[in-house]
Amino acid sequence: MNLPRRLLCVITDDSTDPVELARLALEGGAGMVQLRRKKATGRELFQWAVRIQALCREQDALFIVNDRVDIALAMHADGVHLGQQDMPASAARSLCGPDAIIGVSVSCTDEALKAAAEGASYIGVGHIFPTFSKDKPTPPIGTAAIRTIRNAAQLPVIAIGGIDHDNAAEVIRAGASGIAVISAISESDDPAAATRELVKRIRQ
Amino acid sequence: MNLPRRLLCVITDDSTDPVELARLALEGGAGMVQLRRKKATGRELFQWAVRIQALCREQDALFIVNDRVDIALAMHADGVHLGQQDMPASAARSLCGPDAIIGVSVSCTDEALKAAAEGASYIGVGHIFPTFSKDKPTPPIGTAAIRTIRNAAQLPVIAIGGIDHDNAAEVIRAGASGIAVISAISESDDPAAATRELVKRIRQ
Ligand code: NI
């Protein structure tokens, strides 16, 4: 499946109710929701995923699951997103078939080339700017890395890390197909409005 | 797939190298290895599973994965084992197909009936005796519960919890098809010998 251009992917955080967050993000026009909750049980993920999948279908938005390929398969979700500590993209591709969206987090060209060789559909490139959403001991890679990595891997880039309404357009101009955000939405007082604003900025 | 009678399932613990533990358990004659490592990343589980699957095939032993149906599918493993906090057995059955071994942990008749209705192949019943392997705030259910739960669910029982060479035969006499052990093997000075002794006791 081809990834839509100028896509906003909203990723659930570790404290907000993920179903409610997804609902507000979809209300704001997010094109993709990624369920990510590192410490949740399989049962919790399954139950959230059932509900988020239904919400995404209502809005014609894409739904992907972080790490847990089995949860994605059980939902007939659109795909999965894999970090460098998750199962190899090649294994996920075998399990999910040729049409699934398989995203892989990368922070350099080497990781991007490996993701491409293993059958990734897109690469999540970051972190672009300083961020406190995840533990990030490494420095931000900056917007110039987006085009370099994209051109090397020949895959669409979803940029992540410290992206907000002030820098989102710059990230798209730098060559990203879309952006992924966590705290810009989950920590907003009005997640639907924050999503709407980000969608507007990346479509400018 | 029918579960072999008088089966010894060795479950990996949270500290020992799971591949080495599996190797020794198989050397001692374990009929099944279950990869269980709650805090491991998907990548770690995948890499261990590749090696344990190969060892199990060499010894004609069964290999199942705890919780992560995707890892089991990627290995073409024999099946999965699900706790009450993992994805529903019905979803795992849909993903794995009719021939997969799907075990579900239960501690009472209600959970056992639900597991049976959802397509479980066996029930892991426990904990039978006092145990320190996992956090168990509930009291042990005792050997008499094995037959009660088995007869209600009409599924083979693998008993778990505090089972060692002194009480293994009693558990089989109480109606269990097999036993599952963690610390009895992983905390033994000689895991292969401890496995061999347990296999002998449950075949008496
Ligand atoms: Ni003794």
TrEMBL record, chains A, B:
Chain positions recorded as 4-amino-2-methyl-5-(diphosphooxymethyl)pyrimidine binding sites: 34-38, 66, 105, 134
Cofactor note: Binds 1 Mg(2+) ion per subunit.
The entry's keywords: Magnesium, Metal-binding, Thiamine biosynthesis, Transferase
Catalytic activity: 2-(2-carboxy-4-methylthiazol-5-yl)ethyl phosphate + 4-amino-2-methyl-5-(diphosphooxymethyl)pyrimidine + 2 H(+) = thiamine phosphate + CO2 + diphosphate; 4-methyl-5-(2-phosphooxyethyl)-thiazole + 4-amino-2-methyl-5-(diphosphooxymethyl)pyrimidine + H(+) = thiamine phosphate + diphosphate; 2-[(2R,5Z)-2-carboxy-4-methylthiazol-5(2H)-ylidene]ethyl phosphate + 4-amino-2-methyl-5-(diphosphooxymethyl)pyrimidine + 2 H(+) = thiamine phosphate + CO2 + diphosphate
Main enzyme class: transferase
GO cellular component: cytoplasm
GO biological process, one term: thiamine diphosphate biosynthetic process
Domain Thiamine phosphate synthase/TenI: residue ranges: 8-185
Chain's gene name: thiE
Family: Belongs to the thiamine-phosphate synthase family.
Cofactor requirements of the protein: Mg(2+)
Lineage: superkingdom: Bacteria
Name assigned to this protein: Thiamine-phosphate synthase
GO molecular function: magnesium ion binding; thiamine-phosphate diphosphorylase activity
Pfam families attached to this UniProt entry: TMP-TENI (PF02581)
Binding site for 2-[(2R,5Z)-2-carboxy-4-methylthiazol-5(2H)-ylidene]ethyl phosphate: 131-133, 162, 182-183
Binding, Mg(2+): 67, 86
Pathway(s) served: Cofactor biosynthesis; thiamine diphosphate biosynthesis; thiamine phosphate from 4-amino-2-methyl-5-diphosphomethylpyrimidine and 4-methyl-5-(2-phosphoethyl)-thiazole: step 1/1
Task performed by this protein: Condenses 4-methyl-5-(beta-hydroxyethyl)thiazole monophosphate (THZ-P) and 2-methyl-4-amino-5-hydroxymethyl pyrimidine pyrophosphate (HMP-PP) to form thiamine monophosphate (TMP).
EC number: 2.5.1.3
